Every structure is written in structure tokens, then in C-alpha cells.
């Protein structure tokens, strides 16, 4: 009985191996009918590395921010801050909640700016807006504090 089971296992393993090889070959064959341009587009790198001091392309998010001019505090809040500040994720002061904001405002605007730019607790530097200028961060803070009195 044991030799019968071993024989069945070997045959099953062989069949599975052949099926796997056939599947790999069929996917490789489908690439044969593609033009060199189609293949190049399919295997092109997703991104590029930019080294300081070299001529580099501007990332699309940064290009959009640069071309559209500075974003309003409300626009920055709605795009980058609302995910955490609307519901108080990880202790973030909630938008519109004077009790959450009062102790932070009491420490001064410079402290709020420093925390926003450098990060604090679970908040990363610049929140989630790596492309925001200091003025845009300032506008977002002003928008949140003005609407949380």
C-alpha cells in the first residue's frame, strides 16, 4: 500500500510540475507578440532617483503645487489634515473643538508652527503634506484654530 501511495504522489507531483511549466511558458509566449515599444512600456521603471546637485524632473505633486501658487489654509486642511484632525486620530486636536485647541493655542503660535513643521507624537513632519510650504502650513494652522474657538 505504501509503494502505491508513493507512486501516486510522484505522478501527481509530475503532473503539477508540467502544468506549472506550461503556464509559465504560455505567459512568456504572449509577450512574443508584443512590439518592442509595448514591452519597454510594460517593464519601464516606476520612478527615478534624483541626486542633489543634478538636473532633475520635478515630481508631479510638487509641480502642481508650484504651478497653482500657494494653497489656502482651508484647501491644505481639506486635502492633508482632515483625515486626523476631523476625528482626533492619536490625540490630534479635533477641528472645531475649542477644548482640544485651547491648551495648544495658549503655548503660542510659534509652538504650533514648530510642531506642525517638525512633527509631534504620532504626527509626522508637515503632517502628510511633504510639498506644503511653511506659509501653507501656517495657513492650515490658522484655518484650524480660527474655526475651533
Structure explained in plain terms:
The radius of gyration is 28 Å and the shape is elongated. The protein contains 7 helices and no strands. By secondary structure, it is mostly helical. α4 (73-85) packs across α7. It folds into 2 domains: 2-43; 60-146, Cytochrome Bc1 Complex, Chain D, domain 2 (Orthogonal Bundle), CATH 1.10.760.10. Pfam families: Cytochrome_CBB3 (PF13442). GO terms for molecular function: electron transfer activity; heme binding; iron ion binding. Residues 1-31 form the signal peptide. It comes from Marinomonas fungiae.
Helices and strands, in order, run as: HHHHHHH
Strand content: under 5%
Number of helices: 7
**Dominant shape:** elongated
What is the count of structural domains?
A: 2
Examine the secondary-structure arrangement and name the CATH architecture of the largest domain: Orthogonal Bundle
Report the biggest beta sheet as strand number plus sense, adding barrel if it closes: none
CATH third-tier fold name of the largest domain:
Cytochrome Bc1 Complex, Chain D, domain 2
What is the tally of beta strands? 0
For the CA atoms, what is the radius of gyration?
28 Å
pLDDT < 50 runs, ≥5 residues: none
Identify the CATH homologous superfamily of the largest domain: Cytochrome c-like domain
Keywords: Electron transport, Heme, Iron, Metal-binding, Signal, Transport
Domain Cytochrome c: 68-148
InterPro entries: Cyt_c-like_dom (IPR009056), Cyt_c-like_dom_sf (IPR036909), Cyt_CIE (IPR002323)
Signal peptide: 1-31
